[in-house]
C-alpha cells in the first residue's frame, strides 16, 4: 500500500517511510491511496474478538508490506499490555441508547495511549531494522505529550522532545511529562499557546539544519498516519459491542485537532455503518463554526477547563478536505496557502460534509453543569472533555433508536479544577500507579516563544 500527500506534490511512500517521515515534503499530510474495505459479513465475523485480535485484523492491510504477522502481533500485544482494564476500551451506559467509551485505561489515562503505545512499538521495530537513530519532536495541549513520552522512553534509537504551552496544561498533565527522568526525554515549556507549539514543530520539520549529522525528525503528533490508523480500531470495537454492523452506531467526539474523529470517518469508509459523527468543541470552536456557518476564520485562543481542546489550527482537518475536494492536492494546497486568512469551503463541499458531520460548541459553564447532572443521575464521573462530547451528542443526535457512543478521552482525575467546580469537595484519586505523581521530581526547560531558542536547546543536547 502506498501513501500520498494531501497537497499532491510529495512522492508517495510505503507505510514504513510514512511512519518515519510524518509531515510530507510539500507541507501536506500522508493518507493511504485507497482504504481497505470490509464487507458487512466480514465485519460481523469480527464480533467477539478481543481488542488485540481486532486491532490486528483492522490494521494489517495497511502494514502487511513492511511488517511480518509476528512483528505486527507482537507490537500490538506489547502496546496494550499496560492497559488497566482487560477490555482495553470498555463501554459504560449513561442514558437511553447513550454510551461512554472509556479510552483512558492506558498508562497515562488518556485516549492518546491507544495510538502512542503502538507507535512507540512501531518506531522500535522499524528503526532497529534500519539501524537508524531519530529525534521525535512533538507538541501537546496536554495528553499527547505524556502518552508519547511513555511510548518512546524505552526506545534506544529515539531522543524525544515535547513542547507544551507553559502554565496552560493541568498539573497532572504536566507532571505526567516532566517527572519522566529518562536520559532520552526532554520537556520544553513554551511561553505561548498550543498553536505556537504546533507551528514550531511544523517549522522544524521544514528546516532540520539544527540537528546533528545523521539525525532527522520523526512526528508523534496526529500528523503521523500510524496514530490515526490505530484509532480506527476502537470505533469498530465499540460498534461491534453494540450490535454493529447489523445496525448503525453513531459517535460524538470531543476534538480540537480533528484526528480522533477523522479515525471514525475512516472506519465508516472501511465499511462500518455510521450515520452520524458529532464534532464536539469547547470555546475554541473553529471546527463547529466551519461546519455550521462555513466560518473557518482564526480567533484568539481561549484558555478553558478542557485544555486538550484549546486548539485553533486543526491540522487533521486537511485530511478530510482532501477527500471532500475529490483528492485534488492542488486544490487543498491553494485552499490552505494562507492559514491566517479566513477559509471558505465551496457550498457543495460543505453540504457533503454535513451529510455525516454535525457539530456543537459547549462552554465551560455548561461543561460543569453536565459533569454535575450526569453524576447526579448515574453516579458516573465525566472529565470535562467527555462532558462536552455527551452534551454535544444530546443536542445533535438525529435518532434515539441508534446507539450514540461518546468518546471518553481522559480520566477525570487529570482535571480536578473542573470536577471541583461541578462537585465541590469531591476528590478523584489517581490510579494506584500514579498515587505519588504530584510529589515526584520534575525536569523541564521553560523557553521563550522563539524558534531559534528551541532549536538551540535541542542542538545543545547533542553536544
TrEMBL record:
Enzyme Commission number(s) of this protein: 4.2.3.1
Signal sequence residues: none
Keywords associated with the record: Amino-acid biosynthesis, Lyase, Pyridoxal phosphate
Q: Example GO molecular function term?
A: threonine synthase activity
Name the catalysed reactions.
O-phospho-L-homoserine + H2O = L-threonine + phosphate
Describe the location of the Threonine synthase N-terminal domain by residue ranges.
Answer: 2-80
Q: Does the keyword Lyase apply?
A: yes
Concerning its family, UniProt says: Belongs to the threonine synthase family.
Q: What is this protein called?
A: Threonine synthase
Which species is listed as the source?
Microbulbifer salipaludis
Q: What is the lineage of its organism?
A: Bacteria, Pseudomonadati, Pseudomonadota, Gammaproteobacteria, Cellvibrionales
Amino acid at each position: 500500500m502506498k501513501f500520498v500527500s494531501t497537497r499532491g506534490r510529495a512522492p508517495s511512500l510505503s507505510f514504513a517511510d510514512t511512519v518515519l517521515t510524518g509531515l510530507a515534503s510539500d507541507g501536506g499530510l500522508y493518507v493511504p491511496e485507497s482504504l481497505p474495505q470490509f464487507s458487512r459479513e466480514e465485519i460481523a465475523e469480527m464480533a467477539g474478538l478481543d481488542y488485540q485480535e481486532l486491532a490486528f485484523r483492522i490494521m494489517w492491510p495497511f502494514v502487511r508490506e513492511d511488517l511480518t504477522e509476528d512483528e505486527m502481533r507482537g507490537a500490538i500485544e506489547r502496546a496494550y499490555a499496560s492497559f488497566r482494564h482487560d477490555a482495553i476500551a470498555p463501554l459504560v451506559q449513561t442514558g437511553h441508547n447513550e454510551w461512554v467509551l472509556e479510552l483512558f485505561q492506558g498508562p497515562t489515562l488518556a485516549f492518546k495511549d491507544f495510538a502512542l503505545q503502538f507507535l512507540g512499538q512501531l518506531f522500535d521495530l522499524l528503526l532497529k531494522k534500519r539501524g537508524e537513530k531519530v529525534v521525535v519532536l512533538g507538541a501537546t495541549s496536554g495528553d499527547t505529550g505524556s502518552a508519547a513520552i511513555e511510548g518512546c522512553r524505552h526506545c534506544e534509537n529515539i531522543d524525544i522532545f515535547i513542547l507544551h504551552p507553559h502554565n496552560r496544561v493541568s498539573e497532572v498533565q504536566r507532571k505526567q511529562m516532566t517527572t519522566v527522568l529518562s536520559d532520552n526525554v526532554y520537556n520544553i515549556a513554551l511561553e505561548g499557546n498550543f498553536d505556537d507549539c504546533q507551528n514550531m514543530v511544523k517549522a522544524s520539520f521544514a528546516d532540520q539544519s539544527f540537528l546533528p549529522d545523521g539525525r532527522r525528525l520523526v512526528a508523534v503528533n496526529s500528523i503521523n498516519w500510524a496514530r490515526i490508523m490505530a484509532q480506527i480500531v476502537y470505533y469498530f470495537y465499540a460498534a461491534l459491542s453494540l450490535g454493529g454492523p447489523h445496525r448503525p452506531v453513531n459517535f460524538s467526539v470531543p476534538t480540537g485537532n480533528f484526528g480522533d474523529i477523522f479515525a471514525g470517518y475512516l472506519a465508516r469508509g472501511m465499511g462500518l455503518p455510521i450515520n452520524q459523527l458529532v464534532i464536539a468543541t469547547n470555546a475554541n470552536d473553529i471546527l463547529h463554526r466551519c461546519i455550521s456557518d462555513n466560518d473557518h476564520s482564526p480567533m484568539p485562543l481561549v484558555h478553558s477547563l478542557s485544555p486538550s481542546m484549546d486548539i485553533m489550527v486543526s491540522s487533521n482537518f486537511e485530511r478530510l478536505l482532501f477527500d471532500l475536494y475529490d483528492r485534488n492536492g492542488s486544490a487543498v494546497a491553494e485552499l490552505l496557502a494562507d492559514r491566517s486568512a479566513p477559509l471558505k469551503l465551496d457550498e457543495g463541499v460543505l453540504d457533503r460534509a454535513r451529510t455525516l458531520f454535525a457539530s456543537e460548541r459547549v462552554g465551560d459553564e455548561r461543561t460543569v453543569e453536565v459533569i454535575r447532572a450526569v453524576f447526579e443521575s448515574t453516579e458516573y464521573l465525566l472529565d470535562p472533555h467527555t462532558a462536552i462530547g455527551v452534551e454535544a451528542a444530546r443536542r445533535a443526535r438525529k435518532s434515539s433508536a441508534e446507539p450514540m457512543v461518546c468518546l471518553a478521552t481522559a480520566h477525570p482525575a487529570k482535571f480536578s479544577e473542573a470536577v471541583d467546580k461541578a462537585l465541590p469537595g469531591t476528590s478523584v484519586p489517581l490510579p494506584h500507579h500514579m498515587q505519588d505523581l504530584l510529589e515526584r521530581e520534575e525536569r523541564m526547560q521553560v523557553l521563550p516563544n522563539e524558534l531559534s531558542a528551541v532549536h538551540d536547546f535541542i542542538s545543545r543536547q547533542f553536544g
